[in-house]
Amino acid sequence: MIAKVLVALDGSHRAPGVYDAAAEVAERFGAILHPFRAIFVPPEFPAAAAGSPRDLLPEYLSREAMGELAQLVARAPYLAAEPIVRIGPPWRLILELADELEVDLIVLGSHGYHGFDRILGTTAARVANLAHHNVLVVHEQAGRTFAREDPKTPPYR
């Protein structure tokens, strides 16, 4: 049974589709949806406030991410737990949070392979290969909608 779903979202234009797919699964199983966003600031990135005692960029990015997650949660607020934002490598944080929350399913988007991704691997590939939980990778498909028009229609037409 699926009772807890972790949906890992990024800031791309594909995030609403990934959220909608996770919300559909959560709704059909009566599961709780845990929206998550990882913020990664490479260590070689210069501090946003050079010369100040602390870098304000991670705080700013976290606030922005929380706002974006709140907008996505508003699409199906009755399904979602409080959004979570953490700073670090996305694939690692997704795996750690999935274990911490003891989720039954991880949902994340696939963005395809480009450049170094072919060598290093994508976040979706790492999560799918290393997770101790089931993983649903949502692929972008033109014109696809995830929400059912009529809630009385049977699932998986």
Please, could you describe this protein's structure?
By secondary structure, the protein is α/β, with parallel strands linked by helices. Helices cover 36% and strands 18% of the residues. The chain is built from 5 helices and 5 strands, in the order βαβαβαβααβ. The protein has helices spanning 15-29, 57-73, 90-101, 117-120, 123-130; strands at 4-9, 32-39, 84-87, 105-109, 134-138. It has a 5-stranded parallel sheet, sandwiched between helices. Helix 2 links the parallel strand 2 (32-39) and strand 3. The longest helix is centred in the middle third of the chain and has 17 residues, at 57-73. It is globular and about 50 Å long. It starts with a strand and ends in a 19-residue tail after the last strand. 29% of the residues are buried. Mean pLDDT is 83; it is low at 116-120 and 151-157.
- Count every helix, treating DSSP H or I runs of 4 or more residues as helices: 5
Rg (C-alpha, Å): 16 Å
Decide which structural class fits the backbone: alpha/beta
The main pleated sheet reads as: 5 strands, parallel
Indicate the proportion of strand residues: 15-25%
> How many strand elements?
5
Rounded average pLDDT: 83
Distance between the termini: 21 Å
Strand order of the largest sheet: 3-2-1-4-5
Percent in helix: 25-40%
Shape, per Cα inertia axes: globular
Low-confidence stretches: 116-120, 151-157
